[in-house]
């Protein structure tokens, strides 16, 4: 049985670490395709399955949680069309649950974190999850000063001028509002308004796929008057930074927002039991089709704000809230053709080309087929799926759409299969370059071995290089990259990252002028060259991510940048690093330094070392570094506390807070919490019953303190943490 198919409870610790590395890389790849490239290749359901497996392994082996774990990421980068806005408090996404059992687990996890007995009252709010665009409205001295989208959760887009055109967004707040408050909510469009708008736009050859896309597109107009003409609405349901408390509970806080003139959802209720929560979910689901706006689930939140404060946040979501998603929507259509797409890592991904069909109000023409096993009727565990039925061209298929990602083919309708339909033969050669396509043991994906000689991979790597999260070069979109990559004239060719930065010089020395080519003009060419020149100095973490090294996504790139501080040092260490030759060999000092970076395990280290070991990669890097300067990272950390940057271990029984709460507190204060004691440990907090870890810390001469001393060290009162 391959590792990816092995049940979580059967994984050894070493296997779990390896599987978490694989999942982090795979999920990061899909996040990139969805948020950056706008070209997802898997369904919402399969994406959720990857995240659920990752969460299950992390729950079983919490000390193996990686710095680049999918549980620590959120959102997408802000567009460069609007000025960036730094959120004073992050706008995080919500974890999703999909069943009654999941909701029960969520409630139990809240009780467990807070150490609440089963008979203690715990009240939640429940409200519809609006399918719109998240928005933060900042009021200073009770006047609207900034409106920003969520963006990547930390930085959003400044859409203040456009948001002022919405009637449901007050320009001023009454005198009882705080001097400073960020009101957060959802911009959306009613279904009837969306259909009327689309009908008008269709006359000019334009249309939106659904109300959410329509709302997002209408709000992101450069001309606010275009936004004013669009029927946008706003629901308020939360807040960010505030200069004074506005209530003691979530429910009362939202009511207060309503008192200030905001529209709030009248279907929000308080729930005093799990049965109340599930009952309201089913009531909302039953009225879903009759509501005037799109929703995709119900959001549960702990009602008491002091408990929300204690529960705090994971890296990408609050512990005190979750979204109970509705089941996906389905339709039936004909699979006309199966095509193979080749990604930047060489992965061959099958895509179903469908006879157009409407699913959940969206016209669907493509759907994912996941991999060759899925087409053959074999699931992730190696067991038959769809009762072993394969998928063929010409089949009538059942298509499921969940969320905004590409839909998936769930099953076929056997009785409608054409008599001449042939089993699909998955290619063993790359359809783009003809190189052999191999499938490694334990892998579900077949990959092209062409590497840099494969045009599909090379083009995808350049697309990745210029994408928003990477170098973020405005004016080099998908069509432009394809134009430059396929153009035969050397003066216009871009085949490697360095070619982007030599384009202006090659143009100056050539008779072929970009300005004279259809689709370009004087202004657009000037803007393109200016955008390229603007990226000749770039943050080290962005530069590392842009290189497209396998397993090094945004988070790992930031971790490496913060540790090595300069590209020269990182490259020197990586080129001299030698991985362990076998059991008992720890590798050389350079190797141990890389794997010692917080969150960087052996899988990532090996990918980094392999990248710098390739002659053609070093040559491409040298050419790029002649044009681009990665800016050194600053050594100083952002968090200032007595334990910031220190490695802390908690051992023994904790009496004033749960272990999860202790860990969360330490991480908020900038510490790294480890599960074991080593020479790199700075501090051990020992409670009653501490055993081997305490002894090991004593033997190593590591500072040991008790729980009271911990609170004194970090300057917080135990009673303020313990709650009521």
Describe this structure in words.
With 724 residues, the protein is of the alpha+beta class. It folds into six domains: 3-72, Helix hairpin bin (Helix Hairpins); 84-325, DNA ligase/mRNA capping enzyme (D-amino Acid Aminotransferase, Chain A, domain 1), CATH 3.30.470; 329-416, Nucleic acid-binding proteins (OB fold (Dihydrolipoamide Acetyltransferase, E2P), Beta Barrel); 473-534, no CATH class; 539-631, DNA polymerase, domain 1 (Orthogonal Bundle), CATH 1.10.150.20; 647-722, BRCT domain (Rossmann fold, 3-Layer(aba) Sandwich), CATH 3.40.50. It contains 25 helices and 24 strands. It starts with 12 loop residues before the first helix and ends with a helix.
Key structural traits:
single chain, 724 residues, alpha+beta, Helix Hairpins, D-amino Acid Aminotransferase, Chain A, domain 1, OB fold (Dihydrolipoamide Acetyltransferase, E2P), 6 domains, 5-stranded antiparallel β-sheet, 24 strands, globular, disordered C terminus
